[in-house]
Amino acid sequence: MSRIASTFQQLKADGRKALIPFVTAGDPHPAATVALMQAMAEAGADVIELGVPFSDPMADGPVIQRAGERALAKGISLHDVLGFVREFRAGNDRTPVVLMGYANPVERYGLDAFVADAAAAGVDGVLIVDYPPEECEEFAARLRAAGLDAIFLLAPTSTEARMAQVGRLASGYVYYVSLKGVTGAGHLDTAAVAEMVPRIRRHVGVPVGVGFGIRDGATARAVAEVSDAVVIGSKLVELLERQPADNVALTGAAFIREIRAALDKKD
User: Fold this and answer.
1) Which of 10-19, 211-220, 239-248 comes out lowest in average pLDDT?
2) Is the pTM here over 0.85, yes or no?
3) CATH of domain 3-261
4) Which of the residues 49, 124, 149, 228 is marked catalytic?
5) Boundaries of every domain in the chain
6) Which entry of 27, 46, 60, 124 is annotated as an active-site residue?
7) In terms of Cα–Cα distance, which of 94, 138, 128 is closest to 4?
């Protein structure tokens, strides 16, 4: 069983929902990335999504675009991202790490080399935003053969056929993008999420995480009522972007503790 699957299994047994923060590798300070990951895990993050910086992040809003630009300006490459994961694994062998990014850096690295090096570094899952399921059956198979989970996005516009395709290939969890548009955009409609998640579950056998538009404990708790996981990125990245290096981990941990407390609060 993968580290992601065992994490969700334990959370289900405990009656809890997964908290999945997203941060961009190398932002706002490369030297703070691993400490931030460690601090978030200790504060209650169940899975960490680590963004791979890319120059044309078409699904990301201004906050995460800026984070990617800052990381690229500091020279952060996919090799560096894998190095962060290796360093994190030296002190944490339980918290799953998912790399989230775009096809171009992975294809430049080489698919076979990327899968092998990601597995060796301690990566648990991979989400490539611009790899639709119908075009990456072979890539998903390569990931599974290396013990990595292939994670896919679904959206409010996803058809039943697309959900079925994702259901055949996905492992670990699926990420439901709750809003039309880019990261950080719009107002979260929790009623629409509550309507959509059961539709997804009819086709998908893995846990369903929900992201986009979750900015505080109240919205995280509302989403957790109908999903298996809450993914939160833009608000966290926004909080971190102006922090000095020695305050990044403290700020990230404080925010994660706040969201974790909201998710675990008993009625």
Assistant:
1) 211-220
2) yes
3) 3.20.20.70
4) 49
5) 3-261
6) 60
7) 94
